[in-house]
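From the pipeline queue, job 12 of 40. The input is one protein chain; the requested action is below.

Action: predict structure.
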Amino acid sequence: MRFLFLSLSVAATIAIVVILNTTELLPAPLGKLLSPQEGLWQNAESINEDLNADLRIPGLKGKTEVYLDDRMVPHIFSDNEEDVYFVQGYLHAKFRLWQMEFQTMGIAGRISEIIGDRAVNYDRRQRRLGITYAAEKTLKMWEEDEEIKPICDAYTAGINAYIESLPASKLPVEYKLLGYKPEKWTNFKTVLFFEAMTYDLAGGNDDFEQTNLLRILGETDYRMLFPDVQDSLSPIIPKGVPFTRSVDIPLAPVTADSVYFHRRDSIWFTEQFKPDPDNGSNNWVVSGTKTKSGKPILCNDPHLGLNLPPIWFEIQINTPSYNAYGVSFPGLPGVVIGFNDNVAFGFTNAGRDMMDYYEIRFRDAGRSEYWFNNEWKKADQRIEQINIKGKPAYLDTVAYTVFGPVVYDKTFQDKLKQNKAYALTWIAHYPSNPLKMWKRLNKAKNYNDYLDALQYFKYPSQNIVFASNEGDIAIKQEGDFPLRWQGQGNFVMPGTDSSYMWKGFIPRQDNPFVHNPEQGYISSANQRPVDSTYPYFIPGSYDMYRGISINRRLSVMNNITPDDMKKLQNDTYDIFAEQIRPSLMKYLQKDRLSPEALKYAEMVEKWSLSRTVEEKAPTVLNYWIDSLSAYIFNDEFRKNDLPIRYPKDYILAQYLIRDSSSFKFVDNVNTPEVESLADAVTISIEKATEPLKKLEAEGKLEWGKYKNTTIYHLLKTNMMPFAVQGLPIGGGQNIINAAKHDHGPSWRMVVHLTTPVEAYGIYPGGQNGNPGSPFYDNMAMDWAKGHYYKLWIMKRNESGDRRIKGSMKFSS
């Protein structure tokens, strides 16, 4: 919805619809919402709104000028760095205040304060993860750092300067609808935003599901379906690059086989709140040997939730010492993904397992003592007060063990036995100082500066790609990674002794890394970073097909231009379909199919293998594969209602490509017959036919209509008038253009390291978080169409440029 609230009639209609049709939210009184002085009307903004301001704010050290261009991107020019961060905080608050505060309250387990007791279980789980406990330790590190504390203080002061100037009439619309007001910002909230990022990127695990599946399958069959290294791996670090091992690999405990790999008990509950397992990204860089200009080109598109307001905020920061451009997180100072006059940098998620659960045996229901190393050990107990809108506060007692906080116990999950509990060891419980890395990346001039910056990054582990105008390209998987014995952390571990605890971290010099490889390109797409020659055990949730697709394309490309890279970021070719389709057609017995099933099978057979908007075959293939996976695995996996995980698509493809006799799961154990792969492939498309016929009758068989890519407001379906639905974009899971229903490329960037730098970018949304602004979602359709904006790296002498729509001057 592009120009929401541009007229009073539209505003009134939407307000009433939201109020009368939403049962989950409890907005402010109707009279207040429709008040001409302070209500929703005041949030309407004109395309011609006056953006000029001359702000005198005590505490600033010099003069700062901000020029807002025709996409509402601020270009900040300041005499000193601390003022830059103050102004960045002010601008983040001006355009994204509600988003910033809501996200920090969400990660801290404070949503009950906004919407009432419906959020208590969510808030309890957030507190029990130890997030605020971890944030307190990280805050202490930041506040003791003489370089970082002034940055945080200035950023916080800028946010608060805006909040103090904000009249009730101009409160973001979400505050008005939900009936609350912004708090004063603190450095602790900045840390909480970092913890929110860590949770999204390093807060997922399948320990409980994998433990249950181990019980069902046994160790041999489990390893067959969940191998450490995939057959057709195209790793981040090119094969043949040697690795170092600076320390000994720890040995598994003597009890590992009996109480860990061969455990026979089950865990009867499901974690309700998890990050999206597809949170990931693409990045790649090509050296000057492969480009038309002779200069490197770096590309990045992080795959995250498609939200309004968007995750990112585009910005330029110019000081006497550096000139950085890119996207920032509203909630953190600095440029997070971007470039300066000399270098470019980007990120993809490492996908490594950074969370381990341990089964704790408490002495009694009081949870004050637990069995550890042959004695009862006292647990620390932390009282978490969860304030609830309109009701008394809820007090939750969280036990802390040597492993970490107890997340699940009988008081939180009634399916657990009385004395069973599960404590969490998580990388986020250690303090980290990522702002130090980003500050150095923003200022970096060369490859050595890049290496210097990375030493400060501990988590969430990332593949950090780099290019410079001197010609260097590099990537390093950076972070603190637990030093594990083979198999450690795949399943819930015993918490009764120290032998299953982490044994330190892999030395940083042994992290996967490559600099100026002979092949002339590097890429990462959340695949396993290394082949089987890497000496350490590195469990994780890895993708495969995007990495294969990107490397295949880059390996044959030469005389590359930025336009070539834009096309590659928007590529919709399905390499998974390419691999699995010949086997599907080989085993399909067409003479056994109904006419409708045959029609759908032939759609897949004749398909071009690109997941474009108008194609129907991608939808058919999705249903066929889901049906085939259920046919093959459900008889073994679904013997009860235990929460479990299924093998990834590449495992299914791998065994279809091989001889069927090597895949024992094809036979249905519940029937006397021995089913073949031909039975499985043929019956599965027949079973998928009824839902496909229904979709076709509804006019939703085309991939674009079926996928229905939607950018939701952060409050999701409660705020559908604020969403953008039905964007015409192809791609999807396993595709370079990874746009799914509500998840995908949250920022596309192409940086050409010429002098001056040539750069392009776009994200799905707009700079302004106000739904009443014409800059709320103005870039969404261009993003869906694969368009880019040339990023204007403004110079100090260009203040009269026609692209400038307003200027703000800051001084004390």
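Job complete. The chain has 23 helices and 29 strands.
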